[in-house]
Specification:
The protein is of the alpha+beta class and 409 residues long. It contains 10 helices and 19 strands.
Amino acid sequence: MAPNDSAETTSEATGTVAGRRKAARYIVPFAVAGVAAATIGLVPALADSGDPELPKITAQELIEKIAASDQQQLSGTLKVTADLGLPSIGGLAGSFAPGGTGAGEGDSAADPQAKLMELTSGTHTLRVAADGPDKQRLSILGDAAEYSLIHNAGEVWAYDSQSDEAYHAKSDTSKAGKHEKAPKGVPATPDALAEEALKAAGDTTSVTVDGTAQVAGRDAYRLLIKPKQSGSTIGSVTIAVDAKNGVPLKFTLAPSGGGKAVIDAGFTKVDFGKPDASSFTFTPPKGAKVTEAEDLAAEAEKNGKADRLPEELGALEGFQGLDVIGEGWTSVAALEVPGGAGLPTQGAEGVPAEAQQFLDALGDRVTGTFGSGTVFKTRLVNALMTDDGKVYVGAVTKDALVRAADTAK
């Protein structure tokens, strides 16, 4: 089926539609919230099998269909591949997770804060099930082991079969209600959401309906989102949307530099019927080590490691000098390192030559009217740290970072 109608909008408006609908449909307390975002919201399909003939639809109508979807029950299998150009960090994630210190003494191998970080790299097969906002299950399938995370009416259980460890927490369902209503000033109806997303026309984004596909045996429309600006590391975002119920079935983020997708996750099997109630029940196996979340948090606080990451991120929000350069897909966040200290430069006092060579190997040295610095690159997000302690970060190319630094005040 040939592509049909298109629209232009900003990435911010498009994100509002997607985020608003996900929040309304899959309000999940505690760590399972991350599961919903990573699996139900980002689900590109891998088993495309032809382009079905479907009625023509405009980009506005398709975004409206996504926003109007109220499918709260599903089960299925999906495959998630992430290639950010970073080494696998699954084993290190716990060191930086709130209330977690990795797999050391006093920690749990079943702690979802650390386990779910493994999905940020490599390829994983998952099974998911959802029955409204109070019941979800996600299982990460390994060659000889399985990790499951279950949320059921205010309780969260996680179990790692490889280590025979379980994790238990009470989820704060009172917080979920805060997200069920749109923030003040945000359109609340599907029509209004679609209208706002598409009327925010600008020069930054192209949104088109790019034909059709079959995903996990379901007919779907393909929504194609592309930056119109040069300099972004993002080439395109493609979302396959179920033609019948509007649920996203496919999400692929392709880099502007070519090569395989940065994120490619998708249903290989999906069923929108009511999952069996047994999917959301769990009893720890006899002899399994059970860790209570409250005990982990208390131990982390005792060791001075509680909430480390949120505090650091919070500090960035109030950082003096934090600024945004540019707009849309090529916007760059600029901030200053406390004390104005950058990385050691060639010949810096007290820095061994071997250490300097190692630091230089981590990134690319660049110069401009801003001075000089080092660019650290992934396939998606790049960062420039100048020698005088300024940092520029964005989903932009190395040259775009240098231009941003040159134009900064």
